[in-house]
């Protein structure tokens, strides 16, 4: 696996104008996301309208019970921790959907009268690789034991996936790790396994949590107006530090299949893509 350089001035970045005005810009952008799990965009207007149009250069926005394109402050308008000022540990979003959101973007539009609110990314594939190296039994437990999740903070919603899922999902043919789903708040208590398997799973989960929290795994960003960040929600965990003041953030989800379609066609060309089907 390629390692992202740790110098923040070298983090994968594309230019807003290039993305908006050329498919070559979108090609570079989607290649960054596919390769590194995330990308920044430089020079975007700090408005929800421009951010939404920017996202639509990859694909249409995925709507959820939170709406389509969000533009929010910490007002607890939704009963979810994202809408508070609290610290959020590294997690993936929408584990409660049968198909979790593929990409997620955050654009900090303004932050006034306070400080904090740095954004965190942790490469879930790198963390899983570390777990595999240090404790293969724990890895196997997170690969095989199925968990449930739910979104039921709001009175009129109780979303659950069609089937339970492992924390570490593997491609059935290539056997490669293809998705990490880690969200302690959304995980359901119910697990349909015997007690011994359950105890082992909790040990494995504790170990994975410890790996995820290592300083060497964490990448912190102080996002600024004009520099939205987008990441692969099937690979990268995200979080943020506590903050004070008023912070306005907008963003949205994009489906994984639509992202991969755009990535493949722009980076490989239609002929090569169709040749492999
Ligand atoms: Fe989140």
Automatic annotation (TrEMBL):
<keyword id="KW-0479">Metal-binding</keyword>
<keyword id="KW-0408">Iron</keyword>
<dbReference type="InterPro" id="IPR003819">
    <property type="entry name" value="TauD/TfdA-like"/>
</dbReference>
<keyword id="KW-0223">Dioxygenase</keyword>
<dbReference type="InterPro" id="IPR050411">
    <property type="entry name" value="AlphaKG_dependent_hydroxylases"/>
</dbReference>
<comment type="pathway">
    <text>Amine and polyamine biosynthesis; carnitine biosynthesis.</text>
</comment>
<keyword id="KW-0560">Oxidoreductase</keyword>
<protein>
    <submittedName>
        <fullName>Trimethyllysine dioxygenase</fullName>
    </submittedName>
</protein>
<dbReference type="InterPro" id="IPR012776">
    <property type="entry name" value="Trimethyllysine_dOase"/>
</dbReference>
<feature type="domain" description="TauD/TfdA-like">
    <location>
        <begin position="13"/>
        <end position="253"/>
    </location>
</feature>
<comment type="similarity">
    <text>Belongs to the gamma-BBH/TMLD family.</text>
</comment>
<dbReference type="GO" id="GO:0005739">
    <property type="term" value="C:mitochondrion"/>
</dbReference>
<dbReference type="Pfam" id="PF02668">
    <property type="entry name" value="TauD"/>
</dbReference>
<dbReference type="GO" id="GO:0005506">
    <property type="term" value="F:iron ion binding"/>
</dbReference>
<dbReference type="GO" id="GO:0045329">
    <property type="term" value="P:carnitine biosynthetic process"/>
</dbReference>
<dbReference type="GO" id="GO:0050353">
    <property type="term" value="F:trimethyllysine dioxygenase activity"/>
</dbReference>
<keyword id="KW-0124">Carnitine biosynthesis</keyword>
<dbReference type="InterPro" id="IPR042098">
    <property type="entry name" value="TauD-like_sf"/>
</dbReference>
